[in-house]
Amino acid sequence: MTTIHSPLTDDAHKVVTEALRDALIDLVDLSLAGKQAHWNVTGPRFRTIHFQLDEVVDAARKHADIVAERSATIGSPPDGRAETVAGDSQLPRQQPGWVRDDDVVATFIGLYDGVIARMRQRAHDVERADPVSNNILLDVIEELEKQYWMWQAERG
Amino acid sequence: MTTIHSPLTDDAHKVVTEALRDALIDLVDLSLAGKQAHWNVTGPRFRTIHFQLDEVVDAARKHADIVAERSATIGSPPDGRAETVAGDSQLPRQQPGWVRDDDVVATFIGLYDGVIARMRQRAHDVERADPVSNNILLDVIEELEKQYWMWQAERG
Amino acid sequence: MTTIHSPLTDDAHKVVTEALRDALIDLVDLSLAGKQAHWNVTGPRFRTIHFQLDEVVDAARKHADIVAERSATIGSPPDGRAETVAGDSQLPRQQPGWVRDDDVVATFIGLYDGVIARMRQRAHDVERADPVSNNILLDVIEELEKQYWMWQAERG
Amino acid sequence: MTTIHSPLTDDAHKVVTEALRDALIDLVDLSLAGKQAHWNVTGPRFRTIHFQLDEVVDAARKHADIVAERSATIGSPPDGRAETVAGDSQLPRQQPGWVRDDDVVATFIGLYDGVIARMRQRAHDVERADPVSNNILLDVIEELEKQYWMWQAERG
Amino acid sequence: MTTIHSPLTDDAHKVVTEALRDALIDLVDLSLAGKQAHWNVTGPRFRTIHFQLDEVVDAARKHADIVAERSATIGSPPDGRAETVAGDSQLPRQQPGWVRDDDVVATFIGLYDGVIARMRQRAHDVERADPVSNNILLDVIEELEKQYWMWQAERG
Amino acid sequence: MTTIHSPLTDDAHKVVTEALRDALIDLVDLSLAGKQAHWNVTGPRFRTIHFQLDEVVDAARKHADIVAERSATIGSPPDGRAETVAGDSQLPRQQPGWVRDDDVVATFIGLYDGVIARMRQRAHDVERADPVSNNILLDVIEELEKQYWMWQAERG
Amino acid sequence: MTTIHSPLTDDAHKVVTEALRDALIDLVDLSLAGKQAHWNVTGPRFRTIHFQLDEVVDAARKHADIVAERSATIGSPPDGRAETVAGDSQLPRQQPGWVRDDDVVATFIGLYDGVIARMRQRAHDVERADPVSNNILLDVIEELEKQYWMWQAERG
Amino acid sequence: MTTIHSPLTDDAHKVVTEALRDALIDLVDLSLAGKQAHWNVTGPRFRTIHFQLDEVVDAARKHADIVAERSATIGSPPDGRAETVAGDSQLPRQQPGWVRDDDVVATFIGLYDGVIARMRQRAHDVERADPVSNNILLDVIEELEKQYWMWQAERG
Amino acid sequence: MTTIHSPLTDDAHKVVTEALRDALIDLVDLSLAGKQAHWNVTGPRFRTIHFQLDEVVDAARKHADIVAERSATIGSPPDGRAETVAGDSQLPRQQPGWVRDDDVVATFIGLYDGVIARMRQRAHDVERADPVSNNILLDVIEELEKQYWMWQAERG
Amino acid sequence: MTTIHSPLTDDAHKVVTEALRDALIDLVDLSLAGKQAHWNVTGPRFRTIHFQLDEVVDAARKHADIVAERSATIGSPPDGRAETVAGDSQLPRQQPGWVRDDDVVATFIGLYDGVIARMRQRAHDVERADPVSNNILLDVIEELEKQYWMWQAERG
Amino acid sequence: MTTIHSPLTDDAHKVVTEALRDALIDLVDLSLAGKQAHWNVTGPRFRTIHFQLDEVVDAARKHADIVAERSATIGSPPDGRAETVAGDSQLPRQQPGWVRDDDVVATFIGLYDGVIARMRQRAHDVERADPVSNNILLDVIEELEKQYWMWQAERG
Amino acid sequence: MTTIHSPLTDDAHKVVTEALRDALIDLVDLSLAGKQAHWNVTGPRFRTIHFQLDEVVDAARKHADIVAERSATIGSPPDGRAETVAGDSQLPRQQPGWVRDDDVVATFIGLYDGVIARMRQRAHDVERADPVSNNILLDVIEELEKQYWMWQAERG
Q1: Which of B56, D22, G54, H150 has the fewest CB atoms inside 10 Å of its own CB, making it the most exposed?
Q2: What is the Cα–Cα distance from F148 to F150, expressed in whole angstroms?
Q3: Which pTM value belongs to this model?
């Protein structure tokens, strides 16, 4: 059976594999959380938040794909299955049911706060081991932090 | 707090809510399973299957969104959270790691076989209760069955 | 003079003609009501509501055209003239002049409530007589109900 | 409640409000008359006239929107409700039912003749009071007169 | 050798196979008849009819593809070969050579009259056996009947 | 009745008419054969062959239209009716039913071999009589031969 | 001063220069004649002929540009000035003023008849001297003859 | 025979007809002069001037069409025939043959100087008689004067 | 050194130069003020105002370019340097730092009030001297007044 | 009042704030300087330089927006007001009035020389404090240096 | 192993193979020479020549692909490897390093002069053997000669 | 003669020049090798590999252009001439003639293995000397490694 050859040393490979694995879980879960809120939000700012959440989902899906294919590229099979995401995700759990627009804003400020901190740590961890993966994670951080500013700016 | 008013009777509402809830879980999990295979497939047909799986994902995401918004429309908050999907999905679990192209084809033939049977049952269940939801599910079936033909046709 | 031949029996023709006639009046008046509010809305949510109303108008115009051409297709000349709409429309009358954004939301929730109930009755009436017209009306209902959900969701 | 501040003097405001009000009614009714004929025309030139009428409708709707928003801009709430249009329109009434292509051409030549004369008068009335509204009405006239030429040219 | 598994019962499969088989032959022959007239029409309405016939061809080809792939989807290999179409088509035969525009209109009114009646019968036949195929045929009918209205409207 | 004036001498007209007539039949039948295989192919290369066949169909339809309109242009009414194609086509007949991908490749290699030989003869026949038709047929040959290379290249 | 070097022999250069010079004058005048008729046509077929004439103009302008740049390419400065076109054009002169649609059709049938005969002669003249220019003129002829067929076909 | 009805008084009609007639001749000749220079320019700035001249031609053609159709609209048949343009144009005659880029710039500065002065006079003449035509001519002037600035700016 | 020739008399030139100079400064500063607020706005309406301000910036930049190029066109070199804008702008100064969404709305209502009054004066000043510049300024006013309506409408 | 939370430590925040502040001023002033030259350039290379300067402006505006939003993202309100730019910019001042194309090239070579040196210093300063801002500034440098090469290459 | 069947006789095959082989080498080397100059050109015409060279490269790459695939089509494997191009190319060698814009123009005039002569010979050689390859080479010549005119025209 | 000023120190300049020089040769040769295989591949996976190779070529050409322009930007004239590439390339030589699809996959796996190792070394070499060039090379590596994964994944 085909095995994908890694361009990295074994030590580097171990570090990068772990960082990408966790980043992928965060990003897939972020895309699911974004859709969940997209469907359940209510309140006077419904439309604004409803569409903003689709930008969250689009960005999360795009970055999840880049991160997963980087993982395959360095020879580590990515794992984005539902049970893996549900079991290992560090995102706070969302309650089911309708949710007020103000609560969505507050929830996502908290959610981004955690994801960004973890992503910054991962980017730091892989900096020496694989600068290409480091660059990929810096792009993720740049976009997440920009969205984080916007969630804060509209806190009200 | 806002509650979305249902245009259906209580009995109809109960039937349709359940059908849409299960359809949503199938479709979200199908989109995750499609991406998982997209990232892990190997073999001589890698590129063909790799891109075909993105069509699976695109279709599953599109229909998941339509089904979820129909659920909201009839007054039932949709639930597409990771833990719900992981816990309640009826799709067979996939193993982690690289997977041969022939095995992907076989896996998805089995997977579609089950999804289609369940979707046909749901479409039948809601036919009297809500013809609009029935139409939405028939569209899902039409696309899934067409993809099912193609998976079978390339079984080899 | 040319007369368009109806593919329906006389009885079916009568039922379907009436349903399409009334649906057309509802939809043309909805497009006029949407534009009226689009021009007169004020308040903090001005931009959100202003653009949302153009989606109401676009949908109403698109479906009015489909319904009218279906009427012509079954041999009944459509009637969407100003005096017919003003005289026979069942939509509640709007007051002239500026209107607050919250009032627009409340007005359109009431307005959609009535239109949807009437459209559901019409779809039911033509189901046996002409399944094609039935399908057309189900598409109208699907879109109107989705917009109805959104109006409710942003009620605040 | 919000009131839109007018950039015009009171006298100018009064003149311009009236001109725009009447122009809006003409244009909304023209769009309805265009659709009515679009749906009911028959004869050897059916397709040519059918599609030409959609250009009439598109132009009338576009200019109605510009005129109405100019009215709002100068602080006068626009009125394009069905009852206003049906009650105050100066367009000749159309008969219901199928109509021969030659008769459509003749009808619209007469209809444009009247609209253009009224629009020219309105443009003249506002020339001193508000050159911006004057420019807007001259654009309306330019397009209507060009369409008028075409209706005449194909009179046969 | 691969055989496509049918999601239908044996009885349903037999009814649907036959309906789709005949629909496919009608649609392929309609596309050939449309092109034939497209190339051979003459007369003052040449351009109008010439381009209208390309819309006939486009619609016939699109629906033929959908019908054929639905047939494959339910496990029945489609048959759109020249000899099958020539041998089994129920469309009236066209004469070779130049044809006047008025005659084209008359020919296609007759031709659509027959196709629509047969399609309505087929849609009715499959309604219980396979609602997905029923929906596909209703879409065919909706488009054919709309084109039929236009052919009649321009009869002159 | 209108007759299209030929820009060719009588002798040239006769030669070119025959060449274009036969080319049209080959191309229409090629488009039908391509669709037939597109719908019925099975095997591991299903998707690759399935989409390649749509390129065959697109090219055959495009060139059939050019050839037929050239025939009309030189005053000879084209004949692409189902019975003409079925009766006079020189393409080998295809069997109905599912067909393996390898067999599709072999079939189309044989099929292109014949069509190309006949098209080369036709191009040669009209070279003196009408260089414009000669150029049209050379374009057909260039595209068919390029596709022929690809069919051979993937023979395996 | 720059002189463009000709890739042709002196004899070939002389023959090709003359052919391209005359072709350019025909094509520029055809574009002016097409616009003249586009602006002045009247009658029941006004719109059809009005738009068809813009296709004449577009084709004539495109080919005039190709022919003129080919002339420059072989080292002969092109001449498309108004006085050259007016003085040397072989197109029949058009009368000023409104012109009936039927007369436009008749006029352009005559006009194309002449242009095509002259273009065929020019293509023949340059065949040995410059096959590239020959190809360019054959493309002109192919398009003109196709338009000629359409003008004849709609003669009525 | 159809005559286009003028929306202007007889006096106004006479003034406007003359202004539009002369403007049309200027613009058609400008488009021919632009193409002539486009084909014959040489020198180090060849490409810059070559493409700039196509912008001259595009603008001249666009405005010629607007002016001519305005003339038709007010009931005066436009005249843009080669002999009219060659006979009545006030543009200075260009010499045939290759022309240096610096000379093209100098020529077009002179040429625009004259056209602009005449267009300003025409706009002034029609200001009272027909504000719509006045607006059309002001648009022509705005574009010509902007191009005139650019020609001067690159004089060197 | 090149000097751009003015198509205006000396008196007209002086009046128009001044009007365009001041309009340019207003528009460049408006684009800077719009971006400043775009970056610093906070509050529940963050996204709505954030994007609305980009429309302010786009419009200001587009009109600044048109006004500056008109100035160059009439022979007056435009001046949009930072020091000129900072020194001569009549817009009220904005404070640095975060700013609440409601305050942005209030600020821009005041800001537009002033700009519009000055632009109306400038349009009036140049009406006789240069109708082309007058038209350009009327377009600026039309757009600014429309945006002014929207700012007022959403005041809340 | 909302304050945007910074993902950086206080020391890092101080360093990055200053670097982004100065980068923003450079970029806004570069966009103004580019437009100023775009409007005032003259000479034989007018068009080349005129359009090249719009690329300068587009790049400067795009990067200014990215830098300003990064500043907001790290919790520092950006300052791009006219007075800030005019007061603090380190770009050399440009003279008002027409400027020769060669002088524009020389001016921008000097201008880019300074901006690039300052940007390189800023990128270096933030490298440890915030790698995301470092990446953003490296992108700015990459584009500025490429444009700098082009300005030098065309120095002549 | 697969061998591609040639539609040509052995003699024709030999002649055409050689012509296409040499044409491919010329075109690949032309694309490399174009890029080399694109990167190294300097001087006042930098931008004009820089972008013109990309058109050279685009055309050379497009035609190289067509020629190589025609070679494969007639059963001769194409050879565009670096060592083949470097060893067998008949283009004059370029010096490394910066090159003045005037020298680029002179170099490419010489370079095109040679390529065109060789391409004309090849087109002549294959005229009888394979008219399809002849047509392909005539298209190459048409484009190269047009670019050759432009290089000469801007020689200065 | 113009010399491009380097923004780097002499030592940094030397290091970066060498890295970019070698990267350019690798990338140009990769684009030639990709086209060579694109034209000569045969076997059941012909189409898949044929199109995949065009993605190789597109990426290699895009990155070659970026690398070469970066080299010019830092003041080192790039060298991508055929003799340089053929003489200095470190890619293994390909045999001429048809090549089986499996062999293409194996060849490119080996080829990418070497290119990636060399690119990683170059990126490392320039990291301190020029972070901008480092970023450019990391982008090259990211894309090459992703394609390398895909070649391996389809090894079979």
Answers
A1: G54
A2: 5
A3: 0.95
